[in-house]
């Protein structure tokens, strides 16, 4: 048999999906599995989108232009204007999900061996898309004790070589929920400017910022407009993960020319998805507000609850709908597997994403998990209870130790 | 400004889409442009698919499993059984169009520098996807004088090096319409077996075979079941190009494992597309038969018409809905551009795809075009008239010369 590619072997297993078979087995045993592992919102898609789909009045489902439907791009430009992102339809290329936007960004800007610096923990698939492009991610580690704030600029500068072509950020951040401050964004801007790098900025969670602190887009940073490649997606904003509609936004004509060649090769983004996504831009403001308020409540409930469990620590996420929490366990990969294969509380268990998969450096995040608060409060209450009880009996738990120490201190 | 990638610069412009801006300008001038350039059928999507979309009864448009919806894969397996392709649901991975199936095949099986042999002219985007994967296409040229039959096996063997990992075919063929014979497929099978190569086989046009000659799938070839990666798509079969639903089919577990990592990284193929494609498998047999008969009629009408024009030659395509024709012109790229920018007949003109883009070797196919018969017969009649008249006045035409020679012979 011919050999398969080394590149494929290098590709990481998804930390979000790799425990899926264990979850399936648990379900086969009749156990209810609460999915905190995946950023699949449980909130409804806007009725405007569903109606647009139901009212399709075409006889032929044709290719769209490779750059996306014009009216959709024009409407998206207006949407960005509300966030003071000054782009027009020609700067916007519709992609098949944010995933394709990241892939095409890397493909268009990076050659094999080129390096990008990424604050970690980071969305696991950036690593996968870098491997697809033959590029190398150089991580700088953000720390849970610092609430996952931007690491010092010196940490970035230490990694800069002639091979460095860019910095990639996700803001608000998946998996940490961190929202970069104006000061931090200015530091990133200065690095980009000083070393003439690309800034790949994934801003799909912009609608979900909870602390009153401003959302600073990469396009708000002066003097690096040609360096910015913005990644967007309607998946999370409108609960439309299944549509596979994203966008790549650049004012750099050379980058756009390259991106368009990759777009033409794959012909078209999905037609129906574009129609539904365009309609979603007309979603009733109440729809967005209700979803926002729901996440605000869940966030408070979840983070409070986590921090009340012995030995568990979660910083307070400022945006998105995730948190990375530290658990009192020997190894979160083992713990998450164990929860699915060996534990149940009243016939229920939890599916969380071990955080090690969000670091490219082996050995990092071994006692951390990413939790997506994509379930309603009553379910989150059950999840917290399951977690608390599981930590009491998990063989690799440090809870008994922690409780004993606390008691000896008293 | 940071530099863009060399890979992006290497990417070919789509021969099918690169003249698009000229077509747009012609339309702005009020000229009607007949699109023979693109494989976008004008035939309707099955009502079963449209109804499935209109009857969506979901509140949330969620991700699907990365390998595709189970019920769809099971139904697809049954569809393949009708063609005596012996696969089951677990051998089938749903992709975002056939494009993604080719990309993931290359990504999963080929490393940078690996080579695949492709009979040319070939679907232009194979070259693009090879560049994406860093792989190299080694072309063997099929010739218009031979009706684009499979080149001799010796031509393949001459190109085989330690870097050769596979052969890619498209059967029935885009752009030539050629259908490989049992004998030719056996030769390919023997090459695959002898050198232990992958056989990437794009069979999206299987429903469109017109001569009574059998469609031989790569999966019909004995003893190379583990080497075959089959590419499929619903785009052409059901006029559903806009859905972006394809499939990658392999019995090779190692290949599948690699492919699944690329699938997980991009999360999911489009949900609505999968629902509609699944419903299309229930299309009324009359629907398929009507479309088939329509293409049979168009094919006869177009090919007869082409061969009646002075200096034009088209072999008789046996399948798909394309032909590659030789025109009496200095340069088909120039001629196709000229048709859009400098010619009109009663305010109408033609958009054809210059065939040079379907060859990786420069200088090949310079007097050939690909014509897609995706317009109804009355429109094809107009197209033939436009072509005939254009050839009489195009500055680089050889028609006058040919006519003069013919007359001097008489």
Key words describing this protein structure:
alpha/beta; seven-stranded mixed sheet; 410 residues; Aspartate Aminotransferase, domain 1; three-stranded antiparallel sheet; globular; Aspartate Aminotransferase, domain 2; 12 strands; homodimer; 2 domains
Oligomeric status? homodimer
- Element order, helices and strands of chain A? HHEHHEHEHEHEHEEEHHHEHEEEHH
N- to C-terminal distance of chain A: 66 Å
Radius of gyration of chain A: 22 Å
Q: Which runs of chain A of at least 5 residues are low in confidence (pLDDT < 50)?
A: none
The description of the largest β-sheet of chain A is: 7 strands, mixed
CATH architecture classification of the largest domain in chain A: 3-Layer(aba) Sandwich
Number of helices of chain A: 14
Q: What is the total domain count of chain A?
A: 2
Q: What is the CATH homologous superfamily assignment of the largest domain in chain A? A: Type I PLP-dependent aspartate aminotransferase-like (Major domain)
- Give the fraction of residues assigned to helices of chain A: 40-55%
- CATH top level class name of the largest domain in chain A: Alpha Beta
Quote the beta fraction of chain A: 5-15%
Overall 3D form of chain A: globular
Mean residue pLDDT of chain A: 96
Main sheet of chain A: which strands, in order across?
2-8-7-6-5-3-4
Most residues in contact, chain pair and counts: A-B, 84 and 84 residues
Explain this structure.
The structure is a homodimer of 410-residue chains. By secondary structure, chain A is of the alpha/beta class. Helix content of chain A is 40%, strand content 14%. In chain A, the strands form 3 sheets. The first copy, chain A, has a 7-stranded mixed sheet with strand order 2-8-7-6-5-3-4, with helices on both faces. The first copy, chain A, has a 3-stranded antiparallel sheet with strand order 9-12-11, covered by helices on one side. In chain A, strands 1-10 form a two-stranded parallel sheet. In chain A, helix 3 (47-54) packs antiparallel against helix 10, helix 4 runs parallel beside helix 10 (271-280) and helix 5 packs across helix 6. Chains A and B meet through helix 1, helix 3, helix 5, helix 6 and helix 9 of A and helix 1, helix 3, helix 5, helix 6 and helix 9 of B.
